[in-house]
Records
---
Amino acid sequence: MNLFKQRGFTLIELLIVIAIILILIAIALPNFLEAQIRAKVTKAQGEMRTLGTAIEAYYTDYNQYPADGDDLDPTLFPFDPANFDSFTRMKVLTTPIAYLTEIPFDPFHGETVDLSQTSAAVLFLTGPPFTYAYNTFGSYGAQSPGTPDNFGRPDDWGVTSLGPNGLFDADINGPVYYSATNGTKSVGDIIRKGGRRTILDSL
């Protein structure tokens, strides 16, 4: 005689188990997605710090920063978008002197460029994947009429990640800095700046 009568789960018991699993997923999934975003933010900040070190090392050797679009061709208006291709502009950091072994890519830049954003369409031409945007700023004295003051010898530089929302927010509202305190996936670009005036302003 079998003293232990075997029986399966009832429908109610199965529904309770499924409900518990769904509740656990609902709690864990947002935390998992937030952790992914935080990891990408940390990755972008670390790579941009490395880029900044390489850019300053380049300045030490050449007494100028890598050129961006208007440094290359100040007379062509509107500027040739190809001159602003950040990946091409930053290749000087890998050869002939390897300040970087390779140019890093923005973890927040998707498969396509939003061409409705004028600056984004200019700054992110290659890829996918796309590198961080690179720009120079400032002046070493006025140049001839109709040319940028910073032609060839910019004072400062900046590298930009699109941030978790995947948009070039500077093209919409001016420089908007990303802050996780506004929400992990909030507006704002991750921006790192450096240069001669930046250093003087921070002293």
---
Amino acid sequence: MKYIVAVSVFVLLAGCGTTTVSDTTGDEAVDPYADPPGYTGDPFAGFGPVTSIRFPAAGEPVAEQPADTGGAWSVQVAACGTMDAALTLRDTVANQTNQPVFVDHVGNYYKVRVGSFATSAESDQLRIQLRSGGYPDAWSIQR
């Protein structure tokens, strides 16, 4: 019995050899955040610098932006401290006008802005209408 165990150990050791074999295929681990192989371009070309970013807290309502954004000028009617107040005001103003109403989050405020115009002069009529309709502080702003 000792002879069989000794021979088995000898055969096992003799069969191992001196070459080390790796279990990888030669490819290194892929970094999911890296550029694809062979990519040499700038992924941020054409974009301005990011100055801030804010994600809504869990359960916080998010205002949807209207798809029709015909211009960079709007009339701001208020700056609210909460999203709920801004959404309520947005719905009220939307019922009073036939214009798209936006809620923009700037700093600590939710700004309710109405209309989408190419120039400040084009927004004048809406601004006058909103001021006489109960929003005396309405003013034109470039979005």
